[in-house]
Amino acid sequence: MAPSELLIEASNQRARFALVQEPYVGGTGRVKSQNGIRVFQYADHGSGTVKVAIIVFDADLHITQYPKLTTTNIAVVGIRVRNWEIILVSFYFEPDLPMDSYLAHLRRVQRETGARSVIIGGDSNAKSVWWGSPVTDRRGEELHGSLEDLGLCILNRGETPTFDTIRGGVRYSSYVDITAVSPNLYSLVDDWRVRENLTSSDHNGISYTLTTRHINKNFIKHTTRIYYTKHANYQ
């Protein structure tokens, strides 16, 4: 997805931000910024390739950065809705690495931000019936246990796989991309769905709407359209 296409799609979806995993980073190892978007990602250029980012399309959205909590695999920012901060977390868990350090980092995010309102989204490379997979593996058990410990509610629903591709004439699909929120946000999220035509990646996009009118009646913009994509080309 080229930059102009990304901005057009964000406009069409009325998206205010996106939680992104495995974005296109070129030779720099970082997502390239451009006019019309703000990119939040790990800033240390000597520490490997960025696997996650949070892209903000709304110039009026107030952002709090958490650089000490952001790594190449977990990005963290806060968005301000009047006097209520919502912590956003985009994550990518490497399939061949243990989950322990990632899960410990999620607990650290909750502890150090003091967050009562959290939205996390990302590629877990873990399978569980709790987010649509027909089977549960060890990684799925670990992640589900941690999400429960963090008090987060899983939004995944439906039967459309989040990973779906054809290689050598064989179809491969799975349910490894997860969205979870704090209980106080759960009833405010509508229309969570997997979007098969949102990206050109082998991972489908996910979109949903967070209704903000119940957060503060004086808040003018009443919905926050959110989606995240995979392997997006931000050149």
TrEMBL record:
GO terms for molecular function: catalytic activity. Residues 87-206 form the Endonuclease/exonuclease/phosphatase domain. InterPro entries: Endo/exonuclease/phosphatase. It comes from the Eukaryota. PANTHER family: DOMAIN-CONTAINING PROTEIN, PUTATIVE-RELATED (PTHR33273), ENDONUCLEASE_EXONUCLEASE_PHOSPHATASE DOMAIN-CONTAINING PROTEIN (PTHR33273:SF4). This is (apollo) hypothetical protein. It comes from Parnassius apollo (Apollo butterfly).
